[in-house]
Amino acid sequence: MRFIIVTGLSGAGKTEATRSLEDMGYFCVDNLPPKLIPKFAEACVQSQGKIDKVALVIDIRGGIFFDDLFESLNYLKKQDFKYEILFLDASDEILVKRFKESRRSHPLAPGSRVITGINEERNRLREVKDRADIIIDTSKYAIRDLREEMNKNYGDMKQPEKQLSITVLSFGFKYGIPVDSDLVFDVRFIPNPFYIPELKPFSGSDEPVRKYVLDQEETKGFVKRAEDMLDFLIPNYKREGKRQLIISVGCTGGRHRSVAIANEIYNKLLARNYNVSVEHRDIVEDVHQGAKKL
Fold it and tell me: Annotation-wise, does 291 bind a ligand?
């Protein structure tokens, strides 16, 4: 089990760091009273491997309960329970700026100057910072930079391509464009197997239709250009911290051309070891509509 305690200064980026950990599959709990850490750790162990990545956000919002943190950490150490401390920090100037931009008061100085609360918080967190395994100074970080740093320290760097989840989705325009699409390709310019009687009953997942669609010169040119575009876009999406990419491929009914091409794009991305899946939204819907007309 990887058990991470996320702490640090208010305004230093704990919320965004926690979101990054959630995207990496960590079970995250925010503002857990430190006294409950040992009980929570024991519950995770008893899950028999079902919970193997955990992140707890512990900070001064816990008030007087925060003082129990070191007692709980010492208990875990005596029990030989391995944990890591991630401490997020930033300069006073940046923290003050962030509080002013968000129009929030500091939790330790609700009726006073923000810098007063920051100074008090630094004093209270000095010991836990000294014990931290990783310290990240977010003063000059954009959100994407923090995500990259979190991925570097806590992601699966043996398979970096799998940090972005990609779905290739075929659909029919007559049933509407999928609302969660990031990229939409219209392949209605390709000759339609629907008008060939011996191909009409099949779908793009069946070999006769697949071969017919992929053998078209228009298809070969499109797939090559789409492949080049995705080779350019995907690394840039990843650098921006994007976690999910929906690539929608549409034809008229969503049964023939879009299905065959979506499968082909899926295979191309799979060969590059991306975390990719393929779905065919309207492959059955189009059959039902045809049956109703008959």
Answer: no
